[in-house]
């Protein structure tokens, strides 16, 4: 019940702070989405650049939190929770280092984005590289949502809807 009260109070905050907070939470392991609030705000006339910036930075910081959970909770997660042996861990690390770094550009995808950020922390991906790749992906996603919302809004307006 406390979770619901927390969410209610989050949505009581108007505008950019709510978008930032929801985007932050959506980039953690919580099953939330923030695109809907960006769309609503844009349709209500909020500044697209400020809205995309608030959503992108909030989502990036949430991803950094997930990375930190992987970094500092990694050994516990790998050995105690997931029960991965040393050989399997070494193989996973080799594969991730070969292909995984660039996969962070897709950290915005549902279902796989959060585990990618967690794995990056577990595998100790450099924070600067992590931040750049994740931010580029998340910024592109929110910019695309904003563009589609604004272009779609003008389309629906000219179509008589």
Q: Span from first to last CA? A: 40 Å
* Portion in beta strands: under 5%
Record field, number of beta strands: 0
Regarding quaternary structure, what we see is single chain
Unreliable runs, pLDDT <50, ≥5 residues? Answer: none
Largest sheet: none
Number of helices: 7
Element-by-element helix/strand order: HHHHHHH
Estimate nothing, just give the exact number of structural domains.
1
Q: Which range best describes the helical content: under 10%, 10-25%, 25-40%, 40-55%, 55-70% or over 70%? A: over 70%
Radius of gyration: 18 Å
Q: Provide the structure class.
A: mainly alpha
Mean pLDDT: 83
Shape: elongated
Helices, strands, pairings?
Elements: H1 2-12, H2 16-26, H3 35-43, H4 48-81, H5 86-103, H6 113-122, H7 127-158
Helix pairs in contact: 2-4, 3-4, 3-7, 4-6, 4-7
Task: Give an overview of the whole structure.
- By secondary structure, this protein is an all-alpha fold.
- It has one domain (2-154).
- The protein has helices at 2-12, 16-26, 35-43, 48-81, 86-103, 113-122, 127-158.
- The chain is elongated and about 55 Å long.
- The N and C termini lie far apart (40 Å).
- The model has no long low-confidence stretch (mean pLDDT 83).
